[in-house]
Design brief:
The chain is α+β, with helices and mostly antiparallel strands and 211 residues long. The chain contains three helices and five strands. 22% of the residues lie in helices and 12% in strands. Helix 1 crosses helix 2. The longest helix is centred in the middle third of the chain and has 18 residues. The mean pLDDT is 89.
Amino acid sequence: MLTRRGPLARPAYDVMAFLKSRPDLERPDTEVLLAPWSLAALQPGRPAAVEREPGVSACAMVLRPTSEGSLAITADDPDAGLDIDPGYFSSAYDRQAATDLFGRVRNFFATDPIASRVRRETFPGPGVHSGAEGEIVRAALDGGYCGFHAIGTCAMGPGAEDVTDARLRVRGVDRLRVVDASVLPSMVSGNLNGPVMAMAWRAAQFIREEV
């Protein structure tokens, strides 16, 4: 922070890979990010912290997850809190893909030349077995965190109950559009920055056409 150099002055994750959780799949279904620092154990309600001991972090996630959560209004007061259930790992597909991916990542760190440079696994730790779906999912739910790529709370669709239509207009409210990741009806295979920029371009076209 003082010299603007070192690990914290670089991108958060230096290495990224799209992987198949199983070799028989037609295309990658998971993503792994590697960083030259190690996160400390996450504490509820507190920001993530970097451990002082040198380490490496592997952040792994399932692409195109099938689990669905929910968001519900709790009162007619717009400042009232929402009832949010993320629904993490609520589908068998997501649980299996995450378990298979964890096994692949652990095998990577058990292979030289990187294996000889690793002293120990800090999270979830050697007590969590790679092939045990329940153990992997519990470890992810207890100590993992979301990737900040939530979508779908105002998803587009053709039905009267869908929040937004194909031109991003909110049904039932005149002259109101939603132009962010919440209108996506399904998760894309990767980060959301590009799709949201493309959506903003289309929204600008829609607005100009209707002025």
